[in-house]
Amino acid sequence: MSSQIDHLLTETRRFAPSPEFAADAVAKADLYERAAADREGFWAEQSRELLHWEKPFTQVLDWSTPPFAKWFADGELNVAYNCLDRHVEAGNGDRVALLWEGEPGDSRTVTYAELTDEVKRLANVLTDLGVGAGDRVAIYLPMIPEAIASMLAVARIGAIHSVVFGGFSADSLRSRIDDAGAKLVITADGGYRKGKVSPLKPAVDQALSDRGDGAQLTVEHVLVVKRGENEVEWTEGRDLWWHDVVPQAPAEHTAQAFPSENPLYILYTSGTTGKPKGILHTSGGYLTQAAFTHRNVFDLRPESDVYWCTADIGWVTGHTYVAYGPLANGATQVLYEGTPEFPAPGRWWDIVEKYGVTILYTAPTAIRGFMKQGRVIPQQRDLSSLRVLGSVGEPINPEAWVWYRDVIGGGKTPIVDTWWQTETGAIMVSALPGVTEAKPGSAQVPLPGISIDVVDEKAEHVGNGNGGLLVITEPWPSMLRGIWGDPERYKETYWDKFAEQGYYFAGDGARLDEDGDIWLLGRVDDVMNVSGHRLSTAEIESALVAHEATAEAAVVGASDETTGQAVVAYCVLKESYLSSHENIEDLAQELRSWVASQIGAIARPREIYIVTELPKTRSGKIMRRLLRDVAEGREVGDTTTLADTMVMSTIQSKVGKK
Ligand code: 6R9
């Protein structure tokens, strides 16, 4: 049986780097050897090479009180200086930092000199408002240049930001402000989404309102950017318009150096249950790994590349690969405010063509969405500038990988499938373009300086050809330093499972193939147990989307009297299939048999529901928890983190009818 359920591992297509790409690649194969010979020495060398240390460090890793790590502890640096001033001082002030595109079609170009100026002014404003080192600032903004400036200005004065995704509700915002004890909130009147202004300031007002519960919120001021031009209410004395205070503030501001372990930000993860976890990151180690991975994984040439990561700053990819990595490396990047479908499908490809994007970093869910629309839309644009493509957020099924390479990458670009987490801070597992022979569907190998293993419940290495749990066996520079205000939960969640070995437990299932390459199989809580056989949701989803009719699929394990758990699948069909097939009555049956033929009878879904959309978070993750509720006939749980809360009622009405 286990050989039958190895569907993903039967993927045999291989893509060797082209000799031209390899000859000139930023990353060289010897990085692995150097890191293996002296891991800490390797990171120290990278850090010195990539960053400016105001006070050089002499210590590398302090792991004397695990699991609390210190990297480069006696060194001092300023994160914002590293992302801004030093590029200007090096004569690159005229280089474009941000090529910003608003959803309605307006645009702005911001150079490194201009961004540095803006950040200095804002740093002065924040200081005047009483924000100092160690204070927390909540940022609740759309994808506009001010969002990046805000993160950097907070970092510049040694304060801590907590970015809250602009799509989160007032309640989510309130609980995050409350947990972090934020002193200031930076927001906008509103931002553009799907052609309309989506208001933000009203949610802040609601979040900060007195609820008569005796709760004392710590916020003293709200700084508001004018973007949506929507009407907003105003609390005199508390609220300030950005345009009234920032342009008037002096543009002189000397960046003070802070210790390497000075906290940089808190970012709340969308936990599956309970209170969200405030993941804490600090400065020197984080910025080192952000800059190293951004340069080597994306083959970055700061002088000539136009880089675009489509993530929102509200999640970790937007922190490390929109804000810190690219700016530390002096890159030029696209920042886009809106949705991929506005005003019509193809907007992203218009942007790639308009700005000549060379490196694109996005999520599998977006790629499958584009597959659903068909290849004609991207093929109508000139995408020939693209030379490296990246994927992040969930396992990318081989069909989507190959489509991404063929249709978006013109059949020539390397693809890097990057595995990492909010907690890891930066990419941990990925191919290196120009070095690694790529395997569609596999994230492949730990980066140089990163120690990963796949182990069983007893912490034993599983060996090639087997599955188990992904663990990180040695501390890494950008690792989380804890959960804000809850050191016990930090230990429990990540370190208790393999306490004896001192391994970090990532919560992901993975397999090693015959070459020892890593295939991520989804969260371990997404692994089903059907009649005593372990089945991965990712594996069955991959089989479903390999069928010509299916654009997207989500699989959950629903409790079942006889088999323990049963497979229940939700499928979204391709437009092209729907328009060329009149009768789809029998399709669910056909898909059940298809999965059985692809993987084995054990994997045959008990039910398949054809739906028009899947419930996703704003960062594009499928909320399987909700689909499990439906499959098990329970009342659907908390839907507040859904991008579109209507999706669940549509699905329920479908399932009700069977
Ligand atoms: C960066 C980010 C982390 C979880 C992680 C895993 C999944 C991310 C992946 C991937 C397979 C990849 N994940 N990248 N699974 N292949 N390339 O997404 O952070 O939002 O914290 O999510 O996402 O399950 O544990 P975060």
From TrEMBL:
Signal sequence range: none
Positions with a binding annotation for ATP: G393, E394, P395, D417, T418, W419, W420, Q421, T422, D508, R523, R534
UniProt PTM comment: Acetylated. Deacetylation by the SIR2-homolog deacetylase activates the enzyme.
Keywords annotated in UniProt: Acetylation, ATP-binding, Ligase, Magnesium, Metal-binding, Nucleotide-binding
PROSITE patterns reported for this sequence: AMP_BINDING (PS00455)
One Pfam family in the UniProt entry: ACAS_N
Catalytic activity: acetate + ATP + CoA = acetyl-CoA + AMP + diphosphate
Role this protein plays: Catalyzes the conversion of acetate into acetyl-CoA (AcCoA), an essential intermediate at the junction of anabolic and catabolic pathways. AcsA undergoes a two-step reaction. In the first half reaction, AcsA combines acetate with ATP to form acetyl-adenylate (AcAMP) intermediate. In the second half reaction, it can then transfer the acetyl group from AcAMP to the sulfhydryl group of CoA, forming the product AcCoA.
Name of this chain's protein: Acetyl-coenzyme A synthetase
Organism: Microbacterium barkeri
